[in-house]
Specification:
The structure holds 2 protein chains of 2 kinds. Chain A is α+β, with helices and mostly antiparallel strands. In chain A, 19% of the residues lie in helices and 30% in strands. Chain A folds into 2 domains: 1-32; 35-232, no CATH class. Chain A has helices spanning 2-29, 35-38, 55-58, 77-81, 85-90; strands spanning 45-49, 109-116, 119-124, 130-134, 149-156, 164-171, 176-177, 184-185, 190-200, 204-214, 223-225, 228-232. Chain B has 6 helices and 11 strands.
Chain lengths: 247, 308
Amino acid sequence: MRARSAAVVALVLLTLAGPVAVRAQQRGGGPPRPARDAAPIDLTGYWVSYVTENWRYRMVTPAKGEYRRIPVSPAALPFINNWDPAADDRAGNQCKSYGAGAIMSVPGRLHITWQDADTLRVDTDAGTQTRLFHFAARAAASAPSWQGDSIATWERAIGPDGGGSLRVVTSNVRAGYLRKNGVPYSERSTVTEHFDLAPLADNGRLLLVTTTVEDPVYLTGPYIVSPHFKKEPDGSKWDPTPCSSTW
Amino acid sequence: MLINLVVSSSLIRHTRRAAVAVVLVLLTAGKASAQFDMLGSWAPLGSEDVQNDSVPVDYLGLALTDEARVRALAYDESQKSMVERQCAGWGAAYTVLGPFGLRITSQTDPVTNRVVSITIGAWEDWNEMVIWMDGRPRPSDNALHTQAGFTVGRWEGGALAARTTHVKAGFIRKTGVPLTDKATIDWRFFRHGDVMTVLMVATDPVYLVEPEIVTKGFRLSRTPLDYRAGCVTGYEGREPGDAVPHYDPDKNPFVDEFVKLYHLPREAVLGYRETLYPEYRKKIKDTYVPPPTCSDSCGAAGNFVVRR
């Protein structure tokens, strides 16, 4: 009898231990799986902006001095009111509105690929920018850049249907513009993004990028937008276009 | 010996019960962990502009059929001053198009404690949305169609997915852009920390060439959101039975107001499909003239269009 009860207790313990062991293996108990193999969602492929929100702030260059719907601080106002795209051109800063804080809202196409097993690469045809999302620990680059340093993690939905989200935190950015008309963000900004997928009709896919820009210098609070993209079958519409200060 | 037997069998019974309980807890935990807590008050984030403060003719970001465009241009917002239309309210899409926050509650079965429905509370000019989570079938196509429609939901990939059908023919924009009762609306609610992003994909075989896709962000509010009392009708200058205010679609006096205000291309303001894609930006690059420097209500605090 004691043997039977011990067996039942063992069964209970096994039942308890089973999922935990699986989780432990996935979360560091065993050799870590490459991010590419552990991906709960597939973000790779070509995606096109579908501009249904903030149209007049994204598809055309808004009026100089307008910053509606962005919680700018008083420190930003002189820069907004003195925006000078010609000066940006002269200084070689044509890509100021294509940095990590704004690039997902710039109308264009994304090409998402795995650069290696732990680095997701996002190329944009608008402004020909490249973002690298690093899943593995690495030393941060010393100099700030338009796309900064991005640390990525999968946020896995635990449940029978799987799925999840990609979280990317970017810092060490060069100062840039949230909008083409010179609404600034500083080098001290942090950009946190969540990449989510949703189905569309006819086997379509929608990529949603919830983007939070926090800047202690030029913003009084988080600036949060959620641009979205439709999946495209191939890169036939890929059209690299250089950065522009005015358009 | 007898005592040993009794103790052993009792231990086995308890252990079996414990095992069953553990398995049940694990199974339940697996289901629950795929979900997130969306109950409470969620304040709207005003950082994304869809309706541009309800300029009379503004169909930016929409892919309309010609028929929809004509109907929209025939719309006169004075219709809302008619006593029989004042409290008609807006349809389900107003969840992400309206200015209000979300007050979300759930209703549980008192016996099983399972969630039967999740409800987004009503606001002044918007009916509550009930998302049925108990797997109940949709009503017949001929069943009553309402402003809120009939919505069923399920948890999927860490998000709440829902679909609304049985909507009453109405509008998808306050500017009179119509929506038929054949429309369906798919929803996804994603939560990341204290931010919830609501995705709406509205499909209408009659009035939309492509689905209207809108996202809106909300931030968890520590204090309950303000509740606006329901609409009450009153006299606003029109007698019951008066003609319905409308425009000849070819002579809508506001057709170019938004165009002139921000130097926007007319086909964009009128909701042509091509204007939603990056190619269109390249097409207008050489003809677009930026508006003059902003001098009034230029910032976040002035979120209403200055009518010049």
